[in-house]
Amino acid sequence: MKLHRRELLGSAAFLLMAGTRYASAQSLPWRPEAGSPPTFIKGPWLFFDAGEASAVEALVDRLIPPDPDTPGGKDAGCAVYIDRQLAGPYGRQAGLYVSPPFIKGTKEQGPQDEDGPAVRFRKALAALDQYCKTQKGEAFASLSDADKDAIIGDIEDGAAKLDGVDGEAFFALLLKNTQEGFFADPIYGGNRDMCAWRMIGFPGARYDYRDWVQRHNERYPHPPVSFMGRADWNGRKT
Q1: Distance CA 133, CA 166 (A)
Q2: What is the rounded radius of gyration, in angstroms, for the C-alpha atoms of the chain?
Q3: Which one, of 150, 152, 228, lies nearest residue 184 by Cα?
Q4: Closest listed residue to residue 202, CA positions, set 233, 223, 176
Q5: What are phi and psi of 186, to 5 degrees?
Q6: What does the alpha-carbon distance between residue 171 and residue 174 come to, in Å, rounded to a whole number?
Q7: Across the chain, which distance is largest between two alpha carbons, in Å?
Q8: Rounded Cα gap, residues 229 and 188, in angstroms
Q9: Are 186 and 226 in contact (CB under 8 A)?
Q10: Tens of pLDDT along 161-184?
Q11: For residue 55, what pLDDT is reported?
Q12: CA atoms of 92 and 114, how far apart (whole Å)
């Protein structure tokens, strides 16, 4: 039996309405824009040292350059997002089998070595700066935007050989993590002030859409909401 998306959404809306009626009977009426957000993590770099942080900020700002309407990867907090992820379970491959033997697999099988994302980033950033110093006389973060773009392009297509590092695999990992940081909820460190959500018109984590369920093909008019709520609700900055 096939279940179409609209039927699934309709069933979900029905269950939500039924649950609301029950909540009302329990003296818990729904009210818009309510909720208790989790705590936002602030502070210094958790994984990167100063040189690594500068390199990653420079990298993400070339992958997502700023324009007059939207911040680039650096000001959007993509490097902060990557730093928080590498300092946590993702960086150390928590929950994954990481014991030998390690056998090189195909690209479709994903990474097949003991190095998790944290180790891969650390090795690649060191190799990147060494390559840039050899080729250009300066670390990556100090290069001109044109030189940065040229080196990133060479890493992407395999022309730049980083010592002891698969440059193409590193580029793919960096790009994926940068995209995640740009579009993830700001609680994870990126998408600062929900800039990416504003750019694409995404409403964010508004927990109740009942008044819009039947309004198809209309642009949602309200500003986006993070897991943390909105700064203008309580004076906080996202």
Answers
A1: 18
A2: 22
A3: 228
A4: 223
A5: -60, -15
A6: 5
A7: 71
A8: 14
A9: yes
A10: 999 999 999 999 999 999 999 999
A11: 97
A12: 10
Q: Give the chain as a DSSP string.
A: ----HHHHHHHHHHHHHHHHHHHHHTT----TT---PPPPP-SS-SS--HHHHHHHHHHHHHHS---SSS--TTTTTHHHHHHHHHTSTTTTTTTS--PSP-----GGG---SS--HHHHHHHHHHHHHHHHHHHHSS-GGGS-HHHHHHHHHHHHHT-S--TTS-HHHHHHHHHHHHHHHHHS-GGGS-SGGGHHHHHHT--BS-S--GGGTT-TT----SPPBBTTB-HHHHS---
Check: pTM over 0.90? Answer yes or no. no
- Is-contact 47 86, C-beta < 8 A? yes
Q: Is the dihedral of CA 96, 100, 101, 106 positive or negative?
A: positive
Q: The tokens of 181 are what?
A: 């940081």
Block residue for tokens 């911040």:
71
- CA-nearest of 189, 181, 191, 194 to 232 is 194
Structure-token pair, residue 89: 């379970």
pLDDT digits (tens, 9 = 90+) for 27-52: 445 555 454 444 455 568 999 999 99
Compute the distance between CA of residue 215 and CA of residue 78 in angstroms, rounded to an integer.
Answer: 34
For residues 155 and 171, the answer to whether their CB atoms sit within 8 Å is yes
User: Could you tell me which residue, 60 or 102, shows the higher pLDDT?
Assistant: 60
